[in-house]
Amino acid sequence: MSAAAEPAESATESLVTASRALVAIAARSLAGLEEQVTLPQYRALVVLASRSQLRPVDLADSLDVSPSTATRMCDRLVAKELVERVHSDSDRREVVLRLSADGRALVSEVTARRRRELRKVIARIPAEDQERLIEALRVFNAAAGEAPESVLALGMSL
Amino acid sequence: MSAAAEPAESATESLVTASRALVAIAARSLAGLEEQVTLPQYRALVVLASRSQLRPVDLADSLDVSPSTATRMCDRLVAKELVERVHSDSDRREVVLRLSADGRALVSEVTARRRRELRKVIARIPAEDQERLIEALRVFNAAAGEAPESVLALGMSL
DNA sequence: GGAAACTATTGCACTCATGCAATACTGAAG
DNA sequence: CTTCAGTATTGCATGAGTGCAATAGTTTCC
Predict the structure, then answer these.
(1) Alpha helix ranges (H) inside chain A
(2) CB B145 within 8 Å of CB A125
(3) Running along chain A, 158 residues long, what does each successive block of 10 average in pLDDT?
(4) Is the C-beta atom of A13 closer than 7 angstroms to strand D?
(5) A121:B144 CB<8 A
(6) What pLDDT is recorded for position B47?
(7) What is the pLDDT of residue B147?
(8) Which residue of A has its CA nearest to B21?
(9) Model pLDDT, residue B52
(10) Is the CB atom of residue B46 positioned under 7 angstroms from any atom of strand D?
C-alpha cells in the first residue's frame, strides 16, 4: 500500500471520523427519550410518522416483527397516548393506526434537536468554508444515494 | 427568513441528508449482529474494546447501569465466550473483564464493515472531488470536535 | 483487631419485546 | 350460504435488561 498518499484512503479516514460525530449527534438527539418510550417503540413512532395511516400488519411488516408484537407495542403506545387506534370503516376487520398530536410532537422534537445540533456545528465553520462544505456534501450525498429514513434503521434489534 | 440564500441553512439541509446516510450505514454495519448479541451487549463489547481492562463496576459506570445489571450482562457474554472474567491479583475483591479473541473479532467485524461501506461510497466520487471532500471534512471534523466513540452512544436505553 | 468502605454477586420483581398458536371477526369468492 | 383468506387480538412462554436489597469476600484505616 502506498501509505497515506492515496486520497481514497485519506477520505475514508476523514469520513469515518465525521461519521462518528454524526452518529453521536443522532444518538444524543434520542437521549432522554427513555423516559417516554423504548427504542422499539420510537421506531414504531417514526414509521407511523412517515406513513400517516397504517394497519398493524403494515407496521409489523415495516418493523420486521410479528403482528402480535406490533399489536402489543401499540397497546403500550396507545396507553401512553402517543398513538390512536381506530376501526376502519371500509373494512371492519382492519384497524388504522395514527400518531396522536403528542406522538407527532415527540418525533418532531427528536428531529428538531438533531437539526439544532447540526446547526451549531455549522455555525462554527467560517462562511467561505461553509460554501465548500455544501458543495462537498452535495457530491457526497449523490454518491451515498438516498437513505431510506435512517432513524428507522437505527433499529438493529433496536 | 431570507429563503434558501443563507448558506448556513443550505449547509444544514445537506448535512441532515448526509447524516441520514451515515447513520444508515452505521446501523447497517450492526445488522446481523442480533444473532449473536443484543444491542446492550454490543455496547458492552465496545466499551471493553476501548479500555482493555475493566472491572464490572467500571463497565456499569460506562454503560450507565447498575452493577448488578453489568454482572448479569457479563454472565451472558461470558457464556457466549465473547468476554473473559478473571480475578484480579492485586485486589481479590475485584474482577477484571477482557474481550476474548471472539469478542474482539466481533467488534472489529462491525467497524470493518462500516469502513468498507464508506469506502464504497467514496469510490463513487471522482478523484478531484475527493480532494475537496477531504478538505471539507477536515473543516467539519474540527468544528464537530471529537466524538467519544459514537457507537457507544448508539445505546439510548439501547 | 475491628469498623467502615468497596467489590461482586445473587435473590426477587417487574417491564418489554418476541413469536407461535389459538380465537374471533369480516370480507370475498365460489 | 359456505368455505377460504385476511386481520387483529389474546393466551402462553421465553429471554433480556433493569434496579433494589441482601449477602459474601477483601481492603483499608484507625
Answers:
(1) 7-30, 39-50, 56-63, 67-79, 101-123, 127-144, 150-153
(2) no
(3) 62 92 92 92 96 95 97 98 95 96 96 94 92 94 72 39
(4) no
(5) yes
(6) 96
(7) 58
(8) A147
(9) 85
(10) no
Reported confidence tier of residue B133, pLDDT bands at 50, 70, 90: very high
What is chain B's percent helix, strand, coil content, to nearest 5? 70, 5, 25
Of A11, A119, A141, the CB nearest to B17: A141
Strands A95-99 and A83-87: antiparallel
d(CA B95, CA B108): 25
Burial class (CB in 10 A: 0-12, 13-18, 19+), B90: exposed
A72 touches strand C (CB under 7 A): yes
User: Distance (Å, rounded) from C-alpha A139 to C-alpha B134?
Assistant: 12
Which of A10, A138, A145 lies closest to B14 in CB terms?
A138
* pLDDT score recorded for residue A157: 25
- Per-residue confidence (pLDDT) for residue A145, from 0 to 100: 83
Q: First CA to last CA across chain A, in angstroms?
A: 38
Instruction: In whole angstroms, give the CA distance from residue B132 to residue A136.
Output: 6
Whole-number pLDDT of residue A152:
44
* B27 in reach of chain A (CB within 8 A): yes
Contacts of B42 in chain A (CB under 8 A): 156
Contact predicate A130/A123, CB 8 Å:
no
Per-residue pLDDT reduced to its tens digit, B11-32? 899 999 999 999 999 999 998 8
- For residue B134, give the nearest of A10, A19, A157 by CB distance: A10
Judge whether A57 is closer than 8 Å to chain B, CB to CB.
no
- Residue A130: its chain B contacts at CB < 8 A? 7-8, 11
- In percent, how much of chain B has pLDDT > 90? 78
